[in-house]
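Following up on my earlier thread - several people asked me to post the actual chain instead of describing it. Fair enough. Here it is, all 267 residues.
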Amino acid sequence: MSIVGLLTFANFNGVMAQDATTTEATEQVAATADSAAQAEAVAETAAEETAAPAEETTKSFHQVLKEKYIQGGAGWMTPVLLCLIFGMALVIERILYLNMATTNVKKLLNGIEDNVKNGNYEGAKELCRDTKGPVASIFYQGLDRMDQGLENVEKAVTSYGGVQMARLENNLTWIGLFIALAPSFGFLGTVVGMVQAFDDIEVAGDISPTVVAGGMKVALLTTIFGLIVAIILQIFYNYILTKIESLVDQMEDGSISFMDILVKYHK
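Reply from S.P.:
Thanks for posting it. Predicted structure:
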């Protein structure tokens, strides 16, 4: 009986030990799984935090421009924007007009010479009417006065040339005005923003960087936008001036050649 009891007690202790070992192993596996889950959760959180700034840095140019426009204040940014809109409208109108005013002067003079050489002044006038541009208009005015003598023809060409030059320079004054107004509105907005920043400092009773930096940033945005608008309009303004100078040179050279043709074939 004693031997049987000892064997039974030993088997019971073995079973208990195996159960304890199994339980401990299960707890270790569970603990490992929990640690892995926590590590995965931490990794996902870190990935989301890393992805969030990435999304913020991929803003489109339109979004950034809109954000800066709002920060600068609609009261001061709107006049600058209007200067850009009206200025660009006038610029586009001038560029289209000047491109349409460009004429192949050499071809036109050759056609006029062929008609005048044969005494066909009406044909030369018809050719000028069918040709676009200020040069053709000047030639038409001269041919229309052929019956009044070459002296009157020359006066007509000179006078109408001045009229055409004034038409070429039309609206340039307004473009120059918007070039001057855009940075002026920007500087004015900056000055007003600086005054508001100093008012905030006075109310806060402290010259902390946080109070000053916010007002300064908003104030300087108007100047930046005003200068950008002025630079854009100035570039197109200079292009238009260059185009006008080219057309004026064509008008002057063409008028001289035109008078030479009339003198050569006038009877």
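The chain is about 90% helix and 0% strand. That should answer part of your original question.
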